[in-house]
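Let us practice reading a record.
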Amino acid sequence: MFWVNISSLCKISGKIKQVAGFNAKGCVVSNCYRRRGSATAYKFLSRYRDARNTIRREYVLPDFCRLSRGYLRDPSQTAKSSQPEDAPQAITLNRERFALPELLFHPSDIGLNQMGVVEAVVESLSRCPMNLRAALVQNISLVGGCTLFPGFRERFFTDLRSYMDVDWCVNLADVSNPITHAWSCATAAFTGDMATEDQLFVTRDEWNEHGEEILHKKFLNFLDFESEEAEEASDEPNE
């Protein structure tokens, strides 16, 4: 038996996601998790404690004495009866491997009233001019650590494709390192002519004077930000 400082729990849980999610494919984005019967099937499999459970994984917790870093092990090769009393503890991962990544697409599963990643993309496209939307969906980059989940790219493409017009070509750009890609793009932008520095940044004085409108003016001036009230007023017949 060992004691773990609760201040280390965030660090441990982050390491579980890193090791179980990326290195050993512990967390997987499923293309069929929400289909009728699929979630029930995962729940049914998770009840088994033997080889019939093909989705179970075990993450061995560090005891910070003999083991300073946790690792993923195959539960089918480790029998509890053969383990010594001082064997390290382990966390069992079952259908959580599929349910947790699912929150990226359906946050409402845990009561979060917000859009998933695909819905956010669709909402962003709806705010762009109609003549640009077909071109924008041909150049989508997936960035961030969560995009490294196995199956994320395929699931994102499938869900987004269902929202788009049949004549549109949906294409996901190849990104060598999704974790650092956004920063690399920003760095490349700053290596150009700094004479245009005023167009790359918003100063505090500009923000205090103009607020959010300064962002529209500098970076999003190609969009139409007319209010709905103005559009409704223009549609009303002149008396």
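A brief commentary: The two ends are 83 Å apart (CA to CA).
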